[in-house]
Specification:
Blueprint (H helix, E strand, L loop, with lengths): L6 E2 L4 E2 L7 E5 L6 E10 L8 E6 L5 E5 L3 E2 L23 H6 L10
Antiparallel strand pairs: 1-2, 3-4, 3-7, 4-5, 5-6
Length: about 110
């Protein structure tokens, strides 16, 4: 995934996402973040933002979004929006909790 910021190359804005990139995308209808994939990149001339057609992979619907509505992973989502994650989005910050709840067994004695 390209992670550099949008930049002006003298003619048009350069996108930081490519077709086929897996990402998290914010759905405009409810403001929640969902698993998605970039289907199309619509390049634009300044000052218009680059737009992306994404498909929400867990639900099958599509939406046109801008860079502010995309993140590579949970760490890329603004902290005040972490409570807006869809139930299917994997949160790496929950993994330590899951690991600590595992039951450890004593080794087999032979």
């Amino acid at each position: 995934i390209k992670v550099e910021k949008e930049s002006y190359d003298g003619k048009k804005m350069v996108s930081k996402w490519m077709v086929g990139n897996d990402c998290l995308a914010r759905w405009v209808e409810d403001g929640r973040w969902y698993n998605a994939i970039v289907d199309t990149v619509f390049e634009s001339s300044p000052p218009g933002p680059v737009q992306y057609l994404v498909t929400f992979t867990d639900y099958g619907n599509s939406e046109i979004v801008i860079d502010d509505d995309l993140a590579a992973n949970v760490e890329g989502i603004p902290g005040d929006q972490l409570d807006m994650l869809d139930e299917n989005v994997e949160r790496s910050d929950l993994l330590p909790t899951l690991v600590s709840e595992q039951v450890t067994r004593k080794p087999l004695v032979r």
